[in-house]
């Protein structure tokens, strides 16, 4: 069968001229075939196909010029409907379904203004259930073979025992601290106003260190004064950051695979050592371990010779201390010289509601560096199910860190911590807890007999 689609614009132009010449006024124009070649074979009849301005397909008898049927765009492939309309044409029956013109118009003429909408797919006439509606397909029936769908039993299953780790996920390296904030923290640390861990983040520890810095220097530095911070860094040791080359001794350790939480398990270790090179370097340079990693992405910290960017915190405070104040409300330890001048300030964790710290004034009785720790549940607190006296070996990851400054009140003292990032943000078992590096600095400038005043 041959089919030729007549473009609407060209047809409209030609038809307009044709109608003007052939149709009398007041009478509809007749669409005439242009050539005998525009024919299709449909239900044993020859028809011509035109398209009107609405997109409807118009079937016209090529011999009489009368409209056989009008097909809206959505029903062009509804061949059962075409067969029925051909049958109705043979019986000379005009047919409308609602407002849809799907049969011969009055007098067999077609008007472009006639309303034509898609046949309702939900109607009874949309599908023809008559078995004779379609002719038999030529040739043998076509058989389509398909691959079988994958059954649930064929799909890979998750492991029966998925691997789960208790180790907390590290913060995203992308969410790292700001170097301008870290520069301020380094400046404060150089002058003895410790911000705790250098992590590039503002917080209460930075705020109170800045107050202490201004008291010690007589300045009025603000955290937003970028030029003032830059100038102060230049006057106190230069750039905030420096480079450090990892040595073979650094990479060799010793290290422990992990630090158990249970005290009885801690007591079985030879030493409460660092767990990695990064943890060791972070403490050495007063830094948060994750911030150290963020500053040095993709570096191999376990390889000697690796150059690492670290905080240039300067020298430790070396002025003798004659009085210490442990401020519970401010969560800060302040050290003064004989003239009453503030020489050092440290963020601190001081006691808790269940195990409060001492009150009043006490005195330093002795100082121990890298001490072991004696756990006695009858004297202070009970840890887990441990009800016996245990001796936990020394090391930076021990319960009291790497320093113990004992007070004249038994079992109480000022000491370090294995978790420096939590200083000033958690509670203790009654003692005064500092970062290991702050506790070590204080231990070197204090001596027995120095009073320690606890302020509420």
From TrEMBL:
Positions of the catalytic residues: 415, 431
Segments of this protein annotated with the region Disordered: 130-169
Superkingdom to which the source organism belongs: Bacteria
GO CC annotation, single: extracellular region
GO MF annotation terms: peptidoglycan L,D-transpeptidase activity; transferase activity
Keyword set includes Lyase: no
Pfam families named among the record's database cross-references: YkuD
Keyword terms of this UniProt record: Cell shape, Cell wall biogenesis/degradation, Lipoprotein, Peptidoglycan synthesis, Signal, Transferase
Listed pathway(s): Cell wall biogenesis; peptidoglycan biosynthesis
Ranges of residues in domain L,D-TPase catalytic: 322-455
SUPFAM superfamilies: L,D-transpeptidase catalytic domain-like (SSF141523)
Protein name, UniProt field: Lipoprotein-anchoring transpeptidase ErfK/SrfK
Native species: Aminobacter carboxidus
């Amino acid at each position: 069968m041959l089919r030729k689609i007549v473009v609407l614009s060209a047809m409209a132009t030609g038809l307009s001229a044709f109608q003007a010449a052939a149709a009398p006024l007041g009478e509809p124009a007749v669409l005439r075939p242009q050539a005998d070649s525009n024919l299709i074979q449909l239900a044993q009849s020859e028809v011509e196909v035109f398209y009107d301005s609405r997109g409807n397909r118009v079937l016209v008898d090529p011999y009489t010029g009368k409209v056989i049927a009008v097909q809206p765009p959505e029903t062009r492939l509804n061949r059962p409907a075409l067969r029925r309309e051909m049958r109705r044409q043979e019986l000379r029956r005009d047919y409308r379904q609602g407002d849809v013109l799907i049969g011969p118009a009055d007098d067999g003429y077609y008007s472009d203004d006639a309303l034509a909408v898609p046949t309702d797919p939900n109607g009874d006439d949309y599908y023809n259930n008559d078995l004779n509606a379609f002719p038999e397909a030529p040739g043998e029936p076509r058989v389509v073979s398909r691959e079988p769908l994958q059954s649930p039993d064929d799909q890979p299953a998750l492991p029966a025992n998925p691997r789960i780790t208790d180790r907390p996920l590290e913060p995203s390296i992308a969410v790292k601290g700001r170097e301008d904030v870290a520069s301020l923290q380094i400046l404060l640390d150089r002058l003895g106003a410790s911000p705790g861990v250098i992590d590039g983040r503002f917080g209460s520890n930075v705020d109170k260190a800045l107050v202490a810095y201004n008291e010690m220097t007589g300045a009025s530095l603000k955290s937003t004064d970028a030029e003032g911070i830059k100038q102060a860094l230049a006057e106190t040791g230069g750039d905030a950051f420096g480079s450090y080359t990892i040595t073979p001794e650094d990479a060799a350790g010793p290290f422990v695979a992990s630090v158990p939480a249970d005290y009885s398990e801690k007591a079985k270790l030879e030493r409460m050592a660092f767990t990695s090179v990064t943890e060791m370097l972070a403490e050495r340079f007063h830094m948060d371990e994750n911030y150290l990693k963020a500053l040095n992405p993709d570096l191999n910290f376990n390889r000697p010779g690796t150059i690492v960017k670290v905080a240039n915190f300067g020298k430790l405070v070396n002025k003798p201390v004659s009085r210490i104040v442990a401020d519970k409300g401010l969560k800060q330890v302040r050290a003064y010289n004989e003239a009453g001048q503030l020489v050092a300030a440290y963020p601190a964790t001081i006691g808790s509601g269940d195990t409060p710290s001492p009150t009043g004034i006490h005195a330093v009785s002795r100082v121990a560096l890298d001490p072991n720790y004696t756990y006695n549940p009858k004297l202070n607190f009970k840890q887990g199910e441990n009800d016996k006296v245990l001796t936990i070996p020394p090391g930076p990851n021990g319960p009291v860190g790497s320093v113990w400054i004992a007070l004249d009140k038994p079992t109480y003292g000022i000491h370090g911590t294995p978790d420096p990032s939590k200083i000033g943000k958690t509670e203790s078992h009654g003692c005064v807890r500092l970062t290991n590096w702050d506790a070590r600095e204080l231990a070197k400038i204090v001596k027995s007999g120095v009073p320690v005043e606890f302020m509420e």
